[in-house]
Amino acid sequence: MSNVNINRSVTDTFYRYKMPRIIAKVEGKGNGIKTVIENMPAVAKSLQRPPTYPTKYFGCELGAQTQFDLKNERFIVNGAHDASKLQDLLDGFIKRFVLCEECDNPETFLTVRAKKNEILSRCIACGHQSNIDMRHKLTTFMVKNPPENPEYTGSTTTPNKNKEKEDKKKEKGGKKGKKEVNGDAKQNGEEDDAGSPVEDIPGELTAADDDWGDTSAAAVAARQAALTDAAKSLALNDDLEKTQQERMNIMYDYIKTRETSGECSSAKAGADIVGEAERLDVKEKVPLLLVELLFDENILVQIKKYRNLLLRFTHENKKSQKYLLGGLEQLIGNVHHDILVPKVAHVLKLLYDLDVLEEEVLLEWGSKISKKYVDKVVAKEIHDKAQPFIKWLQEAESESSEEDEDDSDIEITYDERAPVGVVKTAAPAAKQDDEEDDFDIDAI
After folding, report:
1. Which carries the bigger pLDDT value, residue 346 or residue 150?
2. 209 in a domain, yes or no?
3. pLDDT, tens digit, 9 for 90 and up, residues 127-148
4. d(Cα 157, Cα 148) in Å, to the nearest integer?
5. pTM of the full structure
6. What is the C-alpha to C-alpha distance for residues 397 and 386, in angstroms, rounded to an integer?
7. I need a labelling partner for 414 at 20 to 30 A (CA). Which of 56, 83, 105, 432 fits?
8. Domain housing 392
């Protein structure tokens, strides 16, 4: 079995952090086809992570169901996936959940703090500690299924190696005022071998955290009742298991809160809104909510104000742009019909000029009237008002194509008697002026 560097961006053949290369076997056929990762336990052991974590990560990235048979050490991802593809995906898992962000070494251990919905990563190579980005879907699974092995806490002994010593101290009984670090009990203020007082290590699981192992309905209800409102918003939830409409409702409330406080135009709020949309897996549809919550009859001013926020969702994303157009149809046709219908062409041109909507998407929208968002009669009225702008786009595209053709028709002739570097070109025939005057889009 060949080994590869855990951090595959390191090409040093003598790099000491190695892991086995993934071995995958496809089983079954039809709807029952699945991929068994035969050496997942060995791979996970090299990464010092439970084998369920990378397996579940594959499922999140591939949009596939996963199965764990811990007794027989079978870790399965539904669908047919080759080993090289899984190996590339594993690099993403390693970067997010294994490598230290400070020194890039994989000597990190995780601490799950369920009450705060946090996962801490601590590097024993450089001592750096950081919070794992909780926006990835896998973190929900990790919080529900924390690592069973105790994490490294900075002691010079290997974790869980002082079993006999711990048992003896338990028999003698602990005195009041003592603190334990990896089984070594010390008096308050007593100095350790390095000469510094022993303190509580941030991020360590306390006795109160152990109560979270009880997942019965009564225990969950009791814990929820004990939380403050702020803590409840951070506590573990099952948002990703809800329907898309329920997740859109959560996103609606989130944006509305930011809009009410006047934060939506700031860069930080924009990044937070995108992060929440990615967490809820509704990013492409968020433009529908932005139109509803941020725009009214003063849309021409508001588009400029919220341009950066819109671009976070629509830039090079045609689906999001189509949802934005759908939201505009609803706003113009159903909410501010009399005021905004005459301004349709102005609204679309402004969004085009600000690069929020692309020409291809606008032309596709203008070619077909749909009743998906508004009544067909209203949709036709909106499209009729948009026609001057759509026609201008089509003519601009046609002129561009003609110019390209004209450039290709230029005839180049060479004169052997001419000085070196001089090229004679035959000018193309002059075009006749169009009978109709050019259409001025700014005069709409």
Report:
1. 346
2. no
3. 899 999 999 999 999 999 998 7
4. 18
5. 0.44
6. 17
7. 432
8. 241-401
